[in-house]
DNA sequence: CAGCATCCTAGCTGATACTG
DNA sequence: CAGTATCAGCTAGGATGCTG
């Protein structure tokens, strides 16, 4: 089993960053907010730079933190859909704000 | 010299997270937004769990990313003050939003 | 299709001691 | 006071191959 980040929070900001920090969590939440529901394979295509291991691991963390919902269809071939839970939806404005801030900054630095 | 995080951004959200992610950046920005100006030693006291090395390293990254300003007084004993640049100030709403979200979540989980 | 299992490593983070 | 320098560990993240 993959090691799960240890708990122990210095403050609520620390707590929050441990939940949405990491390399892919923000982007996953963002794409889920845009599409509502995404399958594992779709996420994998959208986050083209992620490995299956990291995708699974990140999704599991988001799930156990109550930010996303994982719906398994008992079919063959398998089908799993991911969507935002309430706690995750509450992060959408924050994610968008950060995205816009990033765009502005990149524009200023002439990266766009 | 300490290694600096490699560049190469997938999108603006990725870019943004590389700038405010990490273990202490959010908290530093937050405290600077509350106090306006803080000296090195004051930050060290407030972020009681940080080592001098990490504090310096994190401050340097924030500085070279244009989020904070470093003002050196040529005195003995030395005095250095840190404050938010414009780009950093623009992150305050986001930081506060995230803090509040964290508090709500912690309350729900009975951690407060 | 949606994942596990295994092995591996870069670089983030830390402890401790020292300095202009 | 405000840092550096050194040494060291951990773990987030990656590569590759296999499976229900």
TrEMBL record, chains A, B:
InterPro entries: HTH_HxlR (IPR002577), WH-like_DNA-bd_sf (IPR036388), WH_DNA-bd_sf (IPR036390)
Protein's recorded name: Transcriptional regulator
Domain HTH hxlR-type: 11-110
GO molecular function, one term: DNA binding
Matching PROSITE patterns: HTH_HXLR (PS51118)
Source domain of life: Bacteria
Species in which this protein is naturally found: Pedobacter lusitanus
Keyword annotations of the record: DNA-binding, Transcription, Transcription regulation
């Amino acid at each position: 089993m993959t090691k799960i980040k240890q708990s122990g929070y210095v403050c609520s900001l620390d707590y929050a960053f441990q939940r949405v920090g990491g390399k892919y969590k923000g982007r996953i939440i963002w794409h889920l907010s845009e599409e509502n529901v995404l399958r594992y394979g779709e996420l994998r295509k959208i986050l083209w730079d992620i490995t299956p291991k990291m995708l699974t691991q990140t999704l599991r963390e988001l799930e156990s933190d109550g930010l996303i919902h994982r719906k398994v269809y008992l079919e063959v071939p398998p089908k799993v859909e991911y969507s935002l839970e309430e706690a995750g939806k509450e992060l959408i404005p924050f994610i968008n704000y950060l995205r816009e801030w990033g765009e502005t900054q990149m524009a200023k630095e002439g990266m766009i």
